[in-house]
C-alpha cells in the first residue's frame, strides 16, 4: 500500500471493471435506510427476471410486478444507479431511429445477471418504429423528454400480417412506465414529441429455449393497416428499412 493511500483506494485501483467501481461508489453514496431499499429493489429485479426466464412466473405477471416495483423507485435514484449523466453525452441520436447503448444496473453479489439493460435516446421527432416482439419481455421507463406512446395487442400472427387491437395511446413523460410480452401489449410505437428523449429498458429474452432463437422483432405498417370488425387492425409486416422510411422521422 502506497504512503497516504487508504485501503479503500487500493481496492478501487485493483478492480478492473468500471461497473464494479461504479457499484461500490453508488452504494457508498447511499444513506443506511436508502441503501437497504436500493439493495432490496435490485435484488427483487434480479429475482423477477430470473423467475420469468425460468418459467416460474408468467410473462403477464412479470409485467405487472416489475412495473409495480419500478413505480416505487424514485426517478432520481434510477438515473443515479445507471449513471445516466455520464452515459447520455456518449449516446449518438441518429436522424431516423433511436440510439442505444448498455446501461447496467449495479450488481448484487452472488446473483447471476439474467437480464439486459439499455439506454435508448431519440432526437425530437424521431421514433422507435412500430414493432412486435417474440420470446421476450421488456419494461421501459421514460427518463427525460416526452413520447407519444402507443401499444397494440397481438391478436393473431399471419404470414404477411399481424392482427392487432389498440391498447394504449397516451403521452408518456419522465417516470412513466410501459412493458411488453408475447401475450400482452406486444406491439409498441414511441415517437419523441419533446426531445432529446430517453428511456431505460429492462429486457429478458430466450423465455422459451425450444423456439431456437433468443428474440425476434416484427415490424408492421400500423398507419396503413386495414380496419377489421371490433376495432381490430390488420397490419402488413414490413422490413426494418421500410419501417425506418415510414416511421423513423416525422
TrEMBL record:
Protein name: Uncharacterized protein
Organism taxonomic ancestry: Bacteria, Pseudomonadati, Myxococcota, Myxococcia, Myxococcales
Amino acid at each position: 500500500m502506497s504512503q497516504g493511500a487508504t485501503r479503500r483506494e487500493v481496492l478501487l485501483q485493483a478492480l478492473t471493471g468500471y461497473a464494479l467501481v461504479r457499484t461500490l461508489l453508488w452504494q457508498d453514496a447511499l444513506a443506511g435506510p436508502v441503501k437497504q431499499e436500493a439493495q432490496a429493489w435490485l435484488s427483487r429485479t434480479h429475482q423477477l427476471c430470473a423467475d420469468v426466464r425460468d418459467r416460474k412466473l408468467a410473462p403477464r405477471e412479470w409485467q405487472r410486478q416489475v412495473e409495480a416495483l419500478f413505480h416505487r423507485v424514485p426517478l432520481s435514484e434510477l438515473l443515479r444507479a445507471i449513471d445516466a449523466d455520464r452515459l447520455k453525452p456518449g449516446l449518438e441520436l441518429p436522424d431516423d431511429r433511436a440510439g442505444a447503448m448498455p446501461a447496467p444496473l449495479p450488481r448484487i453479489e452472488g446473483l447471476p445477471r439474467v437480464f439486459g439493460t439499455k439506454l435508448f435516446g431519440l432526437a425530437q421527432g424521431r421514433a422507435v418504429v412500430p414493432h412486435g416482439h417474440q420470446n421476450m419481455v421488456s419494461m421501459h421507463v421514460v427518463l427525460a423528454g416526452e413520447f407519444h406512446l402507443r401499444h397494440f395487442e397481438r391478436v393473431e400472427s399471419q404470414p404477411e400480417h399481424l392482427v392487432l387491437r389498440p391498447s394504449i395511446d397516451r403521452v408518456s413523460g419522465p417516470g412513466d412506465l410501459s412493458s411488453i410480452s408475447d401475450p400482452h401489449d406486444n406491439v409498441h410505437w414511441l415517437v419523441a414529441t419533446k426531445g432529446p428523449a430517453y428511456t431505460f429498458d429492462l429486457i429478458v429474452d430466450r423465455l422459451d429455449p425450444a423456439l431456437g432463437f433468443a428474440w425476434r422483432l416484427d415490424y408492421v405498417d400500423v398507419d396503413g393497416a386495414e380496419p377489421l370488425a371490433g376495432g381490430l387492425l390488420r397490419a402488413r409486416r414490413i422490413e426494418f428499412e421500410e419501417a425506418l422510411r415510414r416511421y423513423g422521422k416525422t
